[in-house]
Amino acid sequence: MSTLFLLFPNLAFGSHNYGEALSKSFLFYEAQRSGYLPHDQRVQWRGNSGLNDGKASGVDLVGGYYDAGDNVKFGLPMAFTVTMMSWSIIEYGKQMSESGELSNAIDAIKWGTDYLLKAHPEPHVLYGEVGDGTTDHYCWQRPEDMTTSRAAYRIDPSRPGSDLAGETAAAMAAASIVFRNNNPAYAEELLTHAYQLFEFADKYRGKYDSSITVAQKYYRSVSGYADELLWAAAWLYKASNKQYYLNYLGENGDALGGTGWSMTEFGWDVKYAGVQTLAAKFLMQGNADNHAAVFEKYQEKAENFMCACLGKGNQNIHKSPGGLIFRQRWNNMQFVTSASFLATVYSDYLASAGKSLKCASGPVSPPELLDFAKSQVDYLLGDNPRATSYMVGYGNNYPRQVHHRGSSIVSVKVDPTFVSCRGGYATWFNRKANDPNLLTGAIVGGPDAYDNFADQRDNYEQTEPATYNNAPLIGVLARLHGGRSEYSQLLPVAIPQPKPDPEQKVTPAPASDIAIEQKETTSWVREGKTYYRYSAIVTNKSSKTLKNLKLSVSQLYGSLWGLSKYGDSYVFPAWINSLPAGKSLEFVYIHTANSPAVVSVSSYTLD
């Protein structure tokens, strides 16, 4: 297959260090991690947190991301974050690889998908929140100290949530594409869960915040679930190439609003513009089949969104005097980054197809659309009336009093003194001083409609960051960092393998060194659900002492005892640090699958 290069001679890409901004974006995700932090954690002021999440409900919900400046794990925005990070890599993985950030990007996605897999223990059960905003916002504590409720909330057939299940299906389907080449077993696991979640979302319809009511004040699903059903179908088609999902888009586009709504926003709640952009891509790739007429309507609405961003449509998005698109006072920057991403990919789709954008005021060339995205990113990075970078740690003038519990309180590693619920407000929240920990890479809510911004910790509308602010931006930054010549985005693009860490040496396990045997020991039924107990025996078959053992355990739908969790792996329990020659170690787990978990050796040493 020949490679098509696209040239955009009118764009100057050198005004900002987009590669630096890209690198810093991934550091922000490390600061948002919940659970056991991995050995290669780069944000050293963070510690382990949320280690009992899900325990009261009998499920392991340790891990995932805190959504913003609080310590709650909200499933809907987390899943959207994973979807958009995955889309960024799917489109611009080559550029991320060339910048040396692809491995960090994939790690950021896997931190999210590992949690989402845990949150889906049964085909028609999905946990959508851990903690609740009311008790959490009453306290100002770093995650390592939190004493707030860690209750887990779920959806199921009697309490449906098609929007939550649909978005999570989209996240897993999109992520499966990212992992297809370098971790095919994991990709297949993600895709299997995505199939189940879509079927759950479509069969048992309802809004998730009617079932998980504690989410209503924070992430209310205003748009309903119709957009997520189409969004999930689009990603499942892209991931599986199954005709069923393409037909779903074609047959339900009108009824579910995909071909009817012309949008002026795209984000964690309203997915229509994203669906329309993907459908337009399928059409330009020649994949619409007998649904071409419907997909042309999707494309028309996608182009209405692009024209609205440019100010050249019939219903345009408001812009500040400094040129920033403005949607709302609270965290407006989320709409800036998401619109910039859609404009970027659509510019490349059009250029690949040799087409231009049709707006009410006339045709628009692909470079002009990309130039719009660049202008928004440049504004975010400091080209604005205040000369302020709204990415923490980028440039010289950026927010120093971020509305974020972890960054505003001294690191537990510097001062482990317990910070109480209300004491955190008195001692740390009300300090009129810079944050003790730099939340590098975080994109805050940003300025108001007139380019005004107040760098104050209590100004949560403007100074609070969020994971879904960064997720679309990483794709745009990779694209801009890549320069003027790019590959056609309509050709099948294989995501390159991440470059290995030269310091990381992983020893495969020869069959003669380590043996793992599993067997089911008992099962029982409780409240109509069957539970299975498995025993796993790890035996050191070598003639030397086994040390530094790391095990990978996947397809585990329950709790495990007898090993310690360490990042993505399991290691020796606290009471031993080695396994002599010929000796064995037993661990057990209970889960709801009638087949054993997949246990494999990741690395070890022999002494």
TrEMBL record:
The keyword Glycoprotein applies. Residues 514-594 form the Carbohydrate binding domain. PANTHER family: ENDO-1,4-BETA-GLUCANASE (PTHR22298). It catalyses: Endohydrolysis of (1->4)-beta-D-glucosidic linkages in cellulose, lichenin and cereal beta-D-glucans. Keywords: Carbohydrate metabolism, Cellulose degradation, Glycoprotein, Glycosidase, Hydrolase, Polysaccharide degradation, Secreted, Signal. Belongs to the glycosyl hydrolase 9 (cellulase E) family. The active site is at H403, D455, E464. Transmembrane segments: none annotated. The lineage of its organism: Eukaryota, Viridiplantae, Streptophyta, Embryophyta, Tracheophyta. Its main location: secreted. Its EC number is 3.2.1.4. This is Endoglucanase. It comes from Solanum tuberosum (Potato). InterPro entries: 6-hairpin_glycosidase_sf (IPR008928), 6hp_glycosidase-like_sf (IPR012341), CBM_49 (IPR019028), Glyco_hydro_9 (IPR001701), Glyco_hydro_9_Asp/Glu_AS (IPR033126), Glyco_hydro_9_His_AS (IPR018221). It is found in: Secreted.
